[in-house]
Fold this sequence. Notes:
By secondary structure, this protein is α+β, with helices and mostly antiparallel strands. Helices cover 27% and strands 32% of the residues. It has helices at residues 3-12, 40-45, 57-63, and strands spanning 20-24, 30-34, 48-53, 69-73, 77-82. Strands 4-3-2-1-5 form a five-stranded antiparallel β-sheet. A hairpin with a 5-residue loop joins strand 1 (20-24) and strand 2.
Amino acid sequence: MTAEMIEHFIDHKDLDGKPVHIHFKERSTVDGIFVKGKDYDELKAKNFWRVLNSNMAGQWAKTKDVNLTRLFNGVSFTKLSENR
């Protein structure tokens, strides 16, 4: 997916802190939360996205430790969908 497509999904859904299903070309689906950190704009320009695995949300709420997140290349995304 392009950075614009991903950004449109993030911005037009009320997803602040809510997990989404991230589908990939060559790996299993990840339930994660897009994190808008200090480097968000720089990473977005390169189509990289900082994602927090949804099962780490409790720990993230306490520490805001960026090391809990993973970087993913948006090119490897095939689909984004809301976690219902």
